[in-house]
Amino acid sequence: MFYSSSGSEKATSVAALISSRYGIKCIDASEGVKPSMILALGGDGFMLDTLRNTMETQIPVYGINCGNVGFLLNKFHPDRLLEDIESASIYTLPVLSAELFDGNGSNVVNAINDCYFLRSHTKAAKLGIMVDGKILAENFVGDGLIISTPTGSTAYNSAVGGAVLSLSSNCIILTGINPFTPKGFKSLVLPRDSTIEVKIHHHDRRPVIAAADAQIFLGVERARISIDKKKTVSALFAASESLHKKIMMAQFR
């Protein structure tokens, strides 16, 4: 077991404490040894980065909240850290695959929470949306779109009024950000195996920012998003920090 730190003041303090009290070393000192797990010391963004970095090795990650919200993280109890880890349940979380196309070709990126398209101009974004090869909206006009996993449905999606999905729902959700047209469009819950295609109309005059878990991409002209059937990530939550319960309670915030 090793730790990885975001480098923030609080994360650095926690790292020093667990190193001196429990002998847990930084991942940089692993010297090629595959850890049984990694303690991620930081905020939700750092936890997402750590999960993506362990996607290929499938090393489980136990996050310790050294940030603000800490939805994907566990509270730090210095005197019972090992007990919390021992009580932890492992959650296998789905991963989105986003193929982004621009003038130079395409790039495939992964996201655990969400992929979104947000206008980066005073003009509204104008998007074409297809689901499984069928046109959903030829001309969506608004600030943008979010495609979220159940885990990510509690984040940006929820903030703009999208539904929070149960972790066991086997669904993804497509939510509009301040839609102007279609007037009645807010969000759409889709089967997990759906493929969503987004075309940015007039991308030169109405550019958007494309993001995958805050990985930012500019100049995107179209995109194809679906659940990656070959990739998952593993997150650990102490008995007192059930992710199922967190998501359930997020529906009543």
Automatic annotation (TrEMBL):
<dbReference type="GO" id="GO:0003951">
    <property type="term" value="F:NAD+ kinase activity"/>
</dbReference>
<dbReference type="InterPro" id="IPR017437">
    <property type="entry name" value="ATP-NAD_kinase_PpnK-typ_C"/>
</dbReference>
<dbReference type="Pfam" id="PF01513">
    <property type="entry name" value="NAD_kinase"/>
</dbReference>
<keyword id="KW-0808">Transferase</keyword>
<dbReference type="InterPro" id="IPR002504">
    <property type="entry name" value="NADK"/>
</dbReference>
<keyword id="KW-0521">NADP</keyword>
<dbReference type="GO" id="GO:0019674">
    <property type="term" value="P:NAD+ metabolic process"/>
</dbReference>
<keyword id="KW-0520">NAD</keyword>
<dbReference type="InterPro" id="IPR017438">
    <property type="entry name" value="ATP-NAD_kinase_N"/>
</dbReference>
<keyword id="KW-0418">Kinase</keyword>
<dbReference type="Pfam" id="PF20143">
    <property type="entry name" value="NAD_kinase_C"/>
</dbReference>
<dbReference type="GO" id="GO:0006741">
    <property type="term" value="P:NADP+ biosynthetic process"/>
</dbReference>
<dbReference type="GO" id="GO:0005524">
    <property type="term" value="F:ATP binding"/>
</dbReference>
<dbReference type="InterPro" id="IPR016064">
    <property type="entry name" value="NAD/diacylglycerol_kinase_sf"/>
</dbReference>
<protein>
    <submittedName>
        <fullName>ATP-NAD/AcoX kinase</fullName>
    </submittedName>
</protein>
<dbReference type="GO" id="GO:0051287">
    <property type="term" value="F:NAD binding"/>
</dbReference>
